[in-house]
Design a protein that fits this description.
Order of helices and strands: HEEEEHEHEEHEEEEHEHEHEHHH
Helix content: 25-40%
Radius of gyration: 22 Å
Number of helices: 10
Low-confidence stretches: 1-23
Distance between the termini: 80 Å
Largest sheet: 9 strands, mixed
Strand content: 15-25%
Amino acid sequence: MKILAAALLGAAIVAQLAPQARAEGTLRVCLEENAPPYSMHEDKESGGFDLAVAGAVAKRLGRELAIQWFETEIDEDSSLTLGANALMSDGLCQLVGGYPTVDGSLGKPQVLTARLPDHEGGKPADRRRPITLGTLVPSKPYHYAALTVVLGGPAVAKPITSLSDLQAVKIGSQTGTLTDAILMIYGGRRLVNQVTHVVPGPRGQLLEREEKGDYDATLVTVRSFDAYRAKHPDTKLKASGFYHRIGFNMGFVGLSSEQPLIDQVNTAIADMLAKGELAPMAAAAGMTYLAPHQPDVQRSVTLVDLFKPDQ
């Protein structure tokens, strides 16, 4: 009887430990489903640079990669910071990839709870549940998200070393964006009369209108132009090679309770950076790769920053 009891107790312990063992053997990462070329997911098709980096990190850690796909809504009530925090605080993932390592998007949030963003496998009731939030801690960044001037029409071959080179060039700008603020403030508003404002929406695609000749230059994220070129391989628009001084390091983010995991991720990222492995991953994903800038965690952009020279 004692032998049977011991066997049953042992089986019970194994049953309790098995899920924990499986969890420790898995790296669970949340990625945006519609942010090409960083990450994209539709039906059974998935890809992107962040997905490749997450896979490489998981391999170095000796873990299986599990992706939780989510969607960031473009409206005034949505927040990547709160959405990422809610996803991890609810246990859906341990890390969120493709996250800006900016001081204003890290640390303890100013609110106690937030709603979950739409995510794969989520139910309507999940959007109504308030999730108690944790403290966000960044990993070492693995690339840099920059702003660049994209040229078209008669300006396509124009050398651009600063925004001052856009004098007398017709410029397109999407309203309500950081790039619009930069263009409108630049040089004491010297470019204002050259700017055509484009409202976001199905009929207001900024780069499509530049392709049609509505203007000859735009200031956009490098990611936006990479995504556009993937959809329009025959485009005549050209990246100028100029990068504005305002940009953002990108990496993973986790909760402070996951600090040991983040330390392991930092080691893996440092090794990939040292061995030059990230640029080929970006090229395979159709992404222009820029190495992280120092410091790893940067200040949030302020109005004062917009008035500084652009070089």
